[in-house]
Design a protein that fits this description.
The chain is of the alpha/beta class and about 160 residues long. The chain has one domain: CBS-domain (Roll), CATH 3.10.580. It is about 35% helix and about 15% strand. It has eight helices and seven strands. The strands form two sheets. Strands 1-2-3-4 form a four-stranded mixed beta sheet. A three-stranded mixed beta sheet has the order 5-6-7. The longest helix has 11 residues. It is globular. The protein starts with a helix and ends with a helix.
């Protein structure tokens, strides 16, 4: 909405009015609620697991491995204080030098996608590239979760 409209709403008594400047596309990419015809299309954000383990760059790999080992996960996402994705520790990285920091052992700049990406389109791309999972982040790089291709394929099969 325009700044003028935001001021008008405030004048009418609305206490929380925001002038969201980026765009509708940015809103969707942040995984925020959608309406209209596209709202029923399954998205990566709908399928992403939000319980993926995280750690900070300064944590020791041995400590992170100990935490992750007791779960169903075989990887850990390295994030900063704002939950911005910095890297990824895969199983092999977690089993490396336990005294190394996550930052020293992580894979930098993992591929990420936005929550509003249609699941079908993402599955097709992942099949072509032989990718088993993808990290889901907001446009600002904040972690939303991790989507496994197998889960998305299963969901697509159920809807067909």
């Amino acid at each position: 909405m325009s700044p003028r409209a935001a001021w008008r709403l405030e004048g009418l008594g609305f206490s929380e009015v925001y002038d969201y400047a980026p765009s509708k596309v940015d809103w969707f990419a942040a995984g925020l609620p959608m309406e209209g015809t596209l709202a029923s299309v399954p998205t990566v954000g709908d399928v992403a697991r939000r319980d993926v383990p995280t750690c900070t760059p300064a944590e020791k790999v041995g400590e992170v491995y100990g935490r992750v080992r007791g779960t169903s996960w075989d990887r850990c996402v390295v994030v900063n204080e704002e939950r911005v994705v910095l890297g990824l520790l895969r199983e092999k990285d977690l089993a490396s030098d336990p005294e190394a920091t996550a930052e020293e052992a992580m894979r930098f700049g993992p591929t990420t996608v936005r929550p509003d990406t249609p699941t079908g389109k993402m599955v097709e791309r992942m099949r072509k590239r032989g990718t088993a999972f993808v990290l889901v982040t907001t446009p600002d790089g904040e972690l939303v979760g991790l989507m496994y291709r197998e889960t998305a394929e299963h969901m697509s099969d159920e809807q067909a």
